[in-house]
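=== RUN LOG ===
request id: a7f3
mode: sequence -> structure
chains: 1
length: 301
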Amino acid sequence: MPLHELARSIPIPPEKDMMLDSFMELLVHQRVFAKCEAGYLLTPTSELMLSEGANMGAFVYFVTDTFPEQLFFLGKWFKDTGKGSAFQLAHDGKPIWDVLKEKPELGTLLNKGMESQSKVCVRYLVASYPEIFDGINNLVDVGGGTGTTVKIIADSFPGLQCTVFDLPHVVENALNNGYFNVVGGDMFVKIPPADAILLKTVLHDWLDEDCVRILKRCKEAIASTKNNGKVIVIDLVLDAETHDSIETETKLLSNFSMMSLVGGKERNKKEWHDLILNAGFSDYKIYPARMPLYSVIELYP
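=== RESULT ===
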């Protein structure tokens, strides 16, 4: 698309065309767009923003609305002896979960962003790791939001009974058309029983002591079923083998983001080992990486 067509389609005043040109040059350098004789082209990065594609635009809006402000509090956060996040310092001590309740428009952006992320991640999951669903009759997705993940799983494995479990005000918005059950509750108190408990990008939101509490509730949930249950964790493993410097950088940035935004963290293999055993599990398995960024970890009681 030529620059003048891009400017008119946004739209911006004609006197800002030169500034847009400079901005586009920066985005080309950062590989967000590409440039050709006819104008500008999409790249794999900008294609992620398309509504008919992965549609990560909502997640980008959420990050740009929430992340910059906390950066001004990093110095104070590093010196602070408390366990809170930089985000809390920027919001009068309120954790992000409370702010999302006060600003439902931010919660909507986050939910839409996580739905888009789930579509990409879970499609890789069911295609690359079908064996993890063998022998499972029912599955509970803890922190499952509006049900995007379990809908993809249920479509891929029609005989599998799936349940979305999340906070009551979250599951009220679950788009359930008979694909799955919906249960509201608190994962720190009790999780519905199932052959398998799924934790997709949940544990990186929390410190170790909180993760141990969550995992103990998961262990109780699978212990109450007849089958030998398991917990399936989808999360980053910082030192998982990769020869992709961009993937490594993305993981490190995610680790910093979790620390400063919610007070959680990404974990390396040793930290996952200690966390799992401290929660009372007898064994676990980290699968070799078959999808971008994320690893699959199975926990056995």
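=== NOTES ===
The chain has two domains: 3-47, 79-96+117-300.
The longest helix spans residues 104-128.
=== END ===
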